[in-house]
Structures are given as C-alpha cells and as structure tokens.
DNA sequence: CGAGCAACCTGCATGC
DNA sequence: TGCATGCAGGTTGCTC
C-alpha cells in the first residue's frame, strides 16, 4: 500500500494522537507478520510513554521511554486510531491500548508488514542501517545517483526503487518521477547521464512533496489513520493509465514489466 | 559484487 | 455459481 508519502501522511495523522500517551496493554492476535511480532512486547510496553513518532524510509518509529517500536506497513498494512471498545475487524493483528482508553490498531491482510522492537538506536537496527539516503536530504543529489549508477545495467526505474540507493520511492512514484524527468524506465541506470539525473532528483522530490500535500495516493485501499483516502491519484500522469492518452503529447501510455513490477511510460515524452 | 526472480499472503477482478 | 488465473503502494533472500 504505502510509499513514502502515504507513510508520512499516516505519521502526521497519528503523531498528535499517541505522543505523551502511556501504554496500558498490548494485544497480539496474530503475530505472524514478515517477522514474528515479539511476544515480549506484551510485558515490555505497558507503562511506557510514546515520546515521538518519526519516519525513516517507509518505517514508522515510535520512540518510547525504553526503546523504539519499528513499524512497516508492507503492501496492505493500515494503522488506525480506535477506542478500546471499538469492534475488531478482520486482519486486526496487533492492538496497543493506552491508559486513556484510546488505541492504535495494526491491520494487514497480506501480513507483509512488520512490527519490531529495539532498545538500541533504531537507525542502527539491521533493517535500517544499510538504507540509502532520504529523498529530501542533501545527500540525495545528481552527483550521488550518477556515481551510484556507474556500471549498473539494471533498469533505471528498478535502480530508483532500490532502497539501498534512495528510500521511499515505490512503484507508483518511480513511474511518475521518470515521466516528469523525461527518462524512459527501461534504460540501464549506468547509461543515464548526469543532466538526466539532475532532472530525476528534482522530479522525485517534487512528486513526493506534491503527493504528501495531497495526502497520498489511493488506488485500492490506502487510507490515513482516520480512514480518509489520499487525493494524489488525480495527479498521476502515467501510473495505471495504460492505453490512455499522454497528458502532454496524447500518445498512448505503454505498460511493461520491469523487475516483476508494472511500469508505465510515454514512449514519446520519455527517452 | 550485481542481476533476476521466487517467495511471503490475502483479496479482488476477470474470464471460462 | 464455481474455479482458475493474474494482479496488487514491498522487501528479503535465494540462485547464477
């Protein structure tokens, strides 16, 4: 479900509702996510206060008194704010109930997501330590992408989606950013020149910021912490538009597969 | 090291 | 109606 804009939308929605709250108890209904949810959370979390909700890549970091809860939503994960008296829904796997009776509920039909716990620096966690730069950080620039891509034969779109290169760019925004930059997605990353990477960096930053401003993209079932959809779908130029006219030149948008992921582009505007 | 791809799992749309 | 197929905002961990 979520790329960086969707995770950031969820973070903004949740933060004011959980910060300064104290955990009363934790319920694990189905801890079988990508990695087993630590049963120890049931013992460890109660009594701890949530001090901040941050984001690194597509991970949400709930900083607590004596550790950090690291949450990834996978493809279909949802977090919603509930009351302890609300009815449970199908695929509600983990509930964190606060002392005031409010709760944070993790729902994930495909269970590709993860809920991890660390008492050390979360950025040093094995899942986070090797990640590439944040797209809004100064380290994400044309010189960096150019240098990283030399000698790489992989398609530039797959390269852009590689979290060791840059985090947060998933399947929707990779197609969108390449369209805006005028780069055809199947081009080997190592053949893309510096000037093109300059445009790509700008396009990625712009698209992600616009998507955050729109509250993310809802294709199927994305919703924020209060159940509202995102509105960036209206601004998508190529993703999901196979066979429709290019917004710029009216050529029909093409769909191909790259790295097992559907990829959309305009064969005229993108070279 | 990089590239390619199967796997994890459920739900939904489509076609016979 | 049923059943088989293919697809889905992600990531890991194999093989070559």
Quick recap of the structure?
By secondary structure, the chain is of the alpha+beta class. It has helices at 4-18, 41-44, 142-149, 156-160, 171-181, 194-213; strands spanning 23-28, 50-56, 59-64, 67-72, 77-83, 92-98, 102-108, 114-118, 254-258, 261-265. The chain has a four-stranded antiparallel sheet. Strands 2-3-4-8 form a four-stranded antiparallel sheet, with helices on one face. Strands 9-10 form a two-stranded antiparallel ribbon.
In CATH, the topology of the largest domain is named: Helicase, Ruva Protein, domain 3
- Which structural class do you get from the secondary structure elements? alpha+beta
- The CATH architecture of the largest domain is Orthogonal Bundle
Name the overall outline. Answer: elongated
Structure description:
The structure is a single chain. With 271 residues, the protein is of the alpha+beta class. The protein has helices spanning 4-18, 41-44, 142-149, 156-160, 171-181, 194-213, and strands at residues 23-28, 50-56, 59-64, 67-72, 77-83, 92-98, 102-108, 114-118, 254-258, 261-265. It folds into two domains: 4-124, MutM-like, N-terminal (N-terminal domain of MutM-like DNA repair proteins, Alpha-Beta Barrel), CATH 3.20.190.10; 142-265, Helicase, Ruva Protein, domain 3, CATH 1.10.8. 23% of the residues lie in helices and 23% in strands. The relative contact order is 0.14. The chain binds a DNA duplex (16 and 16 nucleotides) through residues 1-3, 5-6, 34, 58, 72-76, 91, 108-114, 127, 151-154, 158, 161, 163, 170-173, 216-222, 239, 259-262.
